[in-house]
Design goal:
binds arginine, nine-stranded parallel beta sheet, binds manganese (II) ion, 9 helices, alpha/beta, 312 residues, 14% strand
């Protein structure tokens, strides 16, 4: 099977340095060779870690409360054309971030490619401690990694191309085809948005109540059979015990095994069209360098499970 890889060394969707170093750390730890040699993928686009420095302007003042708005808009626009390119050629798309703002690009491009190729609307499974569905107006931080879902669903829009106005209808996803798993740190404005739009969300409460097995059955049932699925996995969905090196850790998260299980179930559907792994920050290592190494290892495991590694 053909795998289109987009390695995104970009951190402008939030304020901490280091998430841009994640793709190299993941690749150096052997992820792509394993995908090729052990899982048998034909890799495309894997030779470069994209830094997009040509797209980051010298001066980028806040706009509608968003930080680095021009940089994030133009970088995600470029990412969208990269994932579109892969998806429209029928490749499974793997994006290694980068902070979660990059999902504006990965999902916009894949959604468009899948619409063109299969004439189908794509579903998104967003695995995260956070909902990342703030609009520029509801966001307290102004960090765009807390907003990608709002732009992708059209809950947030702007007319200006410089500020995500490039996102067209065929790049958007429906709130009905969006499912969250792992939520535990959702802002008040986001809770209102989830409620008012009837968005399906399985929080840590649901995982404790039903167990991850039933949660995955319910999540996949909501999406429906035979719908192309884009999996966007924020490593902070995992408990900081397994993934401490991330910018916005929240205690009380998924075990690594639960994270892997989510990915195995999505792979098992046969409907996976794209995977993002984001928010690994190897430069944030609470416990010396052990934290970074463990987080990179956890990230690799998540990706391998999504791409079909099985226990037996
Ligand atoms: N809700 C907070 C915000 O909007 C945190 C978002 C964290 N997002 C992430 N992708 N880690 O700023
Ligand atoms: Mn998160
Ligand atoms: Mn996120
Ligand atoms: Mn397979």
């Amino acid at each position: 099977e053909d795998l289109g890889v987009v390695a995104v060394g970009f951190s402008g969707g939030q304020c901490k340095e280091g998430v841009d170093a994640a793709p190299s750390a993941l690749i150096e730890s052997g992820l792509l060779t394993q995908l090729r040699d052990e899982l048998g993928y034909n890799l495309h686009g894997h030779d470069t870690v994209h830094l997009y420095t040509d797209l980051v302007p010298e001066s980028d003042p806040d706009y509608r409360n968003m930080k680095n708005p021009r940089a994030v808009s133009s970088v995600t626009r470029r990412i969208a054309s990269q994932t579109y390119e892969h998806a429209s050629k029928g490749r499974l798309v793997l994006t290694l971030g980068g902070d979660h703002s990059i999902a504006v690009g990965t999902i916009a491009g894949t959604a468009k490619g899948i619409r063109e190729r299969l004439g189908r609307e794509m579903a998104v499974i967003w695995v995260d401690a956070h909902a990342d569905i703030n609009t520029p107006e509801t966001s307290g931080s102004g960090n765009i990694h807390g907003m990608p879902v709002a732009f992708l669903t059209g809950l947030a829009k702007d007319d200006n191309e410089e500020f995500f106005g490039w996102i067209q209808d065929d790049m958007r996803i429906s709130v009905r085809k969006l499912v969250y798993i792992g939520l535990r740190d959702v802002d008040p404005g986001e809770k209102r948005i989830l409620r008012e739009n009837g968005i399906k969300a399985f929080s840590m409460f649901d995982i404790d109540r039903y167990g991850i097995g039933r949660v995955m059955e319910m999540a996949l049932a909501h999406i429906g059979n035979d719908t192309p699925i884009h999996l966007s996995f924020d490593v902070d969905a995992l408990d900081p015990m397994w993934a401490p090196s991330t910018g916005t850790p929240v205690r009380g998260g998924l075990t690594l095994r639960e994270g892997d299980y989510i990915c195995e179930c999505v792979h098992e559907t046969g409907s996976l069209v794209a995977v993002d792994l984001v928010e690994v920050n190897p430069k944030l290592a609470p416990v010396e360098d052990v934290g970074a190494h463990e987080t990179v290892r956890a990230g690799c495991s998540i990706v391998r499970c999504a791409l079909g590694e099985s226990l037996l």
